[in-house]
Amino acid sequence: MRTATTEDMYQYEKPTAMDRQLDVLQCHADGGLLLGASSLTGQYWFGSIWFYQRPELAPGVDGCTAGVQLEAGLGDARWVDSTHVLVGLDTGGIAVWRLEDDFHTFVLSQSAPGHDGVVTSTAVASDRQRAVTAAQDRCIKIWDLSITSLIYSAKAHNSLISCVDSHPSEPDLFLSCAQDDRILLWDKRKPKPASILKKSPLEHTATCLRWQPGQAHKFAVGSESGQLAMLDIRAGVDNFRTASPHDRPVYNLQFCAEKPSLLASVGEDCRTVVTSVLEDDDMKQIYSNTSHQDFVHGLTWPSYSRLYTCGWDSQVLCHNIDACTSVALGQRSAASNTQADNGAEDAAVKSAVLTNGDISDHIGDGDSSLKATYSQAVKTAQEISAEG
To answer: What angle is formed at CA 372 by the lines to CA 367 and CA 376, rounded to 5 degrees?
Structure first.
């Protein structure tokens, strides 16, 4: 385990170029935007994180408030609080970065090795004291974020773990899904914390999942066939509703915090979809957009009527759900970028509206789950069988 020393607490210079593959988007509580990007250099992946106080300027480097090049490829990233970002790396390690100087400087706060493979997913507990990470090494690890210390490790699945998600109000509860076709419910208050929610109800393996805000027992799950399902942990997987808005693997899901009945999904088919989840968990598609020209990985809700997405086509799109339109951010002129009015983003939407078009023939050659690493972390704790 490694905690950053005093020598590590230096200010990093902002990179001069944006990595091509945009993987992560996270809204900030004050309206800013966190962007995570990756690029393949030779046989290795490298990543970077960027913060924009004005989201309409993303993904341009000049409009970025703060940015930093990471030591390895980016697996996932999540806000811990208003100034700290948890990053999972291709090396298997994690790092916590702190925004200082009025959000203009990223400083490495703490870092630690952990997994023996690429970190595929991260989640921060509702108490903001702990985090959960999953990786290609089939392990689930829980971290004390105050000192970035590993406090629990388990070999939870029989194959690569695709996603973990913490319960919105219970810090001891979280979910995981993997390529072994299992969905696990975790409760750290129990002697044997992992329980199998039987076999996945989906036609193909689950790829991502997300708890529904305001609902203590319900979550959504996406599959490698493009199918979505709403599940209730009290009913196992016996009773569920499904929809098929995608025709390729779903990479990410996100409920709208302001309106939890809205579920956004993105995936390999370059499509962005918003589904309305009704009271009986029936699902109705209300928005679909194919403006992205490559895999779509990141999405976040700044409000109930707007959605940001990013993809491997180097674009960040703002979707107006009510108007059923989208705009590529970062296309405003340098002169207009200097005008700091509250209506800047609305002006950008009006000036460059994109209609819902057909998917381009160009599809990326790679998948984020196949990123190569250039080093491996050393195990720091004995792995405990999740079924044992």
So the answer is: 140
Residue 17 lies in a domain: yes
pTM of the prediction?
0.82
Token pair in block for residue 332: 């405003």
Going from the C-alpha of 181 to that of each of 184, 198, 200, 232, 294, the distances in angstroms are 10, 10, 6, 18, 26
pLDDT tens track for 118-157: 999 999 999 999 999 999 999 999 999 998 899 999 998 9
Shared domain for 166 and 112, answered yes or no, is: no
Domain count, the chain: 2
CATH number at residue 54: 2.130.10.10
Backbone φ, ψ for residue 346 (5° rounding): -65, -35
Q: How far apart are CA 177 and CA 323, in angstroms?
A: 34
Q: Count Cβ atoms within 10 A of the Cβ of residue 280 and give its class: 0-12 exposed, 13-18 middle, 19 or more buried.
A: exposed
Question: Which residues, 6 or more positions from 346, have their beta carbon under 8 angstroms from its beta carbon?
Answer: none
- Give the domain range for residue 172: 156-355
Q: Is the dihedral of CA 229, 233, 234, 237 positive or negative?
A: positive
Q: What is the pLDDT of residues 216-246, one digit of tens each?
A: 999 999 999 999 999 888 875 555 778 999 9
Q: Do residue 95 and residue 164 come from a single domain?
A: no
Residue 90's nearest CA partner among 375, 299, 325, 349 is 375
**Could you give the CA distance from residue 132 to residue 168 in angstroms, rounded to a whole number?**
13
Region label for 186, one of left (φ > 0), alpha (ψ between -120 and 50) or beta (otherwise): beta
